[in-house]
Specification:
mainly alpha, 79% helix
């Protein structure tokens, strides 16, 4: 919310400048306006659901989810959309997962009973 409050004056100034130049599409073209409003809903609803669900989880579980989500995005990008998987990524990706395995292993060893 703080980011939105800080950036709102700049965004409103930009919108006013675009409107003054006659280049405003939002609120002038119905289909664009509807799509932009729906884009906000499609973005906000999953984030709100995730935030509410995260309150019920342990921090370690949320931490693992923070690794799984980017991995799924990477796999989708490479195998579905054909993104190149260069040498730097081929080196970094296993290192990230190795660190995650080390962290998980140490966490499991410390777990009582």
């Amino acid at each position: 919310m703080l980011e939105v409050l800080i950036l709102s004056p700049l965004a409103l100034g930009w919108v006013a400048w675009i409107a003054a130049r006659g280049e405003m599409v939002f609120l002038t073209d119905t289909s664009v306006t509807v799509l932009m409003l729906l884009a906000g809903v499609v973005t906000a609803v999953p984030l709100m659901l995730y935030a509410n669900g995260a309150k019920l989880l342990r921090l370690s579980t949320i931490g693992i989810l923070q690794y799984i989500a980017p991995t799924m995005i990477l796999l989708t990008a490479v195998f579905v959309f054909g993104e190149p998987f260069g040498t730097a990524r081929a080196i970094a990706f296993p290192m990230i997962w190795a660190a995650l395995l080390i962290y998980t292993g140490s966490m499991l060893r410390r777990k009582p009973g």
